[in-house]
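FIELD: query
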Amino acid sequence: MNFETIFGISNGLTANELIKLIGNPNEKSGAEEWESDGMVHDTWKYTKKNIEIGMISHENSDQLVNSILVNSPSNAKTSRNIGIGSSIDEVRSKYAKEIDISQSSENSLVAGSPFGGIIFTFENKKLITIFIRVFLIIND
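FIELD: result
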């Protein structure tokens, strides 16, 4: 899964593009370099939308959207019109070609892979979280 959007937000969007699209976040975690990948990570929280955006950068590069987490309650929808409260059958239908059965379970479906795709989490067969992540290569 190389491309998916929520509110028009997609992985690889710059910080300025994100702000133009949905405004400034209510809260930022603060930039922190991770030893595991050598990248600088920051989480932007949009509390009214129940969305957390994972931002990533390297040294002096622009921050880019690296992940999108949508929590319940939220009216955010994917580009395939799946949102919080959608049924597991709706998700299976819309993402049938991309679902990785070996990575999925009774309470989660993985479209693509856990490292580059969407993880849908369910409770009582209703969608409660959407997590989108695409592996980004940042060129300085």
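FIELD: remark
The beta strands are 5-6, 9-10, 27-28, 32-33, 40-46, 51-57, 64-71, 108-113, 116-123, 126-133.
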